[in-house]
Amino acid sequence: MRSKVLFLPGEEKSELLERLPLLLGRLIDGGFSNDAFCGMKVHVGENGNTTFVPADFARVGVRFLKEAGARPFLFETNTLYYGQRGNTVDHLNLAAKHGFSLEKVGAPFLIADGMRGESSARIPVKGKHIREAQIASLVPNIPCIVGLSHFKGHMLSGFGATIKNFSMGCAARGGKLQIHSLSKPWIDVERCTRCGECQKRCPADAIETKGGDFVIVRAKCTGCAGCIGVCTARAVRIQWNEASESASQKMAEYALAALSGKEAFYVNFLVNITKECDCYGEKMKPIHEDVGILASRDPVAVDQACLDMVEEEIGSAHKEVDPEIQLAHGERIGLGKRDYELEEL
User: Fold this and answer.
1) Is the entire prediction scored with pTM above 0.85?
2) C-beta of residue 173 within 8 angstroms of C-beta of residue 224
3) Would you state the pLDDT for residue 185?
4) For a Cys-Cys bond, which of 11, 47, 93, 116 suits 84, CB 3.0-4.6 Å?
5) Which domains does the chain have, with CATH numbers?
């Protein structure tokens, strides 16, 4: 049986905002009982980015969820890389700057993985690459999730949307490292200030001193990436060397772990479609005109439907990357189906 994907066409933001409750009503098809907590997974955009999904859509979604009987909140995780979203304080400030505040959206915004991305839950998953996923500690406790995902290009996986939002976007810092890198972190002695904070915080006692320099012992390192979060000198470095194929497959496996046992609804925004992801802290030009909003209860189907609509532009944006890998692997491991039925509203 094919998965149902709902399609709300439109290029004007005002029209899409007005009609979003119709789409959500068809998608969720019923209310929530017992004031159920419902987490809305968002991406607030990096500082300087202007093409992330605007907070206005989260505001409309929050209002809909409240009227349906839910107790909604927004959530996100800290980044692996050093930036404005690398710790909870800066992340919350940026979220408010971009409109994701209680006052403007009507629901609180939570960081799901601790002050620096160190708070994780180990979730078993039967994957090709992943046996135990490091998921943000709040995520397993969320009974219902609504994902607001921006469909755009991505240099590692060809595109990013729902699968990316619930893999990289729900992984704790150690999980993000597991997806992105084949190796353990290392310390740049030229940048290191020898403060020793990384050594104090390492749960595996994997950081030692040699000749006055701090070094990470690979045999002891568990890949939790906690040292990255505590290093204010940005001396703990990452090799962004994971091959596109395996990284794309890891994304599907992490999404499977994050969504395990949950009631979940997925909404993809085919607007402001850029070559690169919203983690880029710069203004980017769209590579395709706005298409509208797609939604489904199947994360693979909704991503597949979006890709089918803009496949030529996404393929041209990253010719060296196969965007189908994450979809094919997602179907293979039971995350969802690629075969879908599109219903236009």
Assistant:
1) yes
2) yes
3) 84
4) 47
5) 3-178+243-344 (3.40.50.11440), 184-237 (3.30.70.20)
